Amino acid sequence: MTAKILPLVESPIRGYMMYSYHLAVTLTNVDAWPWIHSNYVQLQCNAAQLALSECIDFSKTPKGEIHFTEGTAPFNPWLADSDKLDEATMESLGDSIAEYVVTKLQQDFYVETFVDEFYISALFNGGTTHFGHRLLVYGYDDERRTFNIIGFDKNSQYRQLECSYAELDAGFVHSVPHIAGRTRFFKPSADSRPPARFDPERFLPVLAEYLSSTNTLLNPDLRGDLKPNTDLWYGLKTYEFLQQYLTRWIDARNRDVPMGLDFRGFHIFWEHKKCMNQRARWLAAQGYAVSQSMLDRFSQVQTSAESARNLVVMCRRGLLPRGREHLIPIPEQMETTRRIEAEVLAELAHVVAQHAPTLHGEKSAQV
């Protein structure tokens, strides 16, 4: 077999690759939407970033990150037990992982590895910046000696791309730190787990914690490197985080402090509201008593978050000539959005709780 491309769908969450890769792979093999709607509820952020002193690598842009607490592959039941590259195999590969990746793709495994993007010319950082990051490989062409990959291109567009075997080898070998377990092999199967279903017993407690800005149920250590005593904020308090981040950034720029603007937190924030909106509409289609008024307010929350995100992106890219004043109304706008979201999510929790006994009865009848 000289070429093969594994299927890949568009992920409902694309703000960080640790979400987009895994959902794009899972949804090609599993009807995981009921599971997605049971999860991807809780948000978290690190309050220390409000000091505007922790910058994105190789930049003067202070981090303003928000994450889904449930976002990483170990949380995904179809990927959690995926095999990893071991140290002995990595040593045996020497300076070339390309042929090994081809073998895995032939066996229908998606390969997620870790590379220095400087060596992958099609990626945003290719040829310009040494930047270690995960990379998903989902196909190959042995005659052309190219891999099918997905990532951010030179125009910051997230899309399907190609790289050569030699580029993947160089990016892999030069990744720092060079850790075997960062390369994982994904082959999700609906037969390997119980059928995906909406789980109100999971959804309702996590939603309650989102509304109370607390977290006792989920592991917040997304990357396995969370430091003790880190002050994480959760749930609705992420509104306050973005409000303060923007207010402090505007104040610093007014004092002529040179710094970039991190749009990623605002993007994830918008994707979270989009997920909430999609969930409400899906529940309504499943027979839950979600009113049109509730659906309208969910759409209002999503639209408001998208508006804030778009303004931040345009200011970051210099598309608004005197960008700072365009950002000033956003914190107040977000406060209005927060009140609407809190109210409609409390109503949704009541609807799901009222519907739950019926759902339990249906489940018992199937056993």
From TrEMBL:
Superkingdom assignment: Bacteria
The name this protein goes by in its record: Butirosin biosynthesis protein H N-terminal domain-containing protein
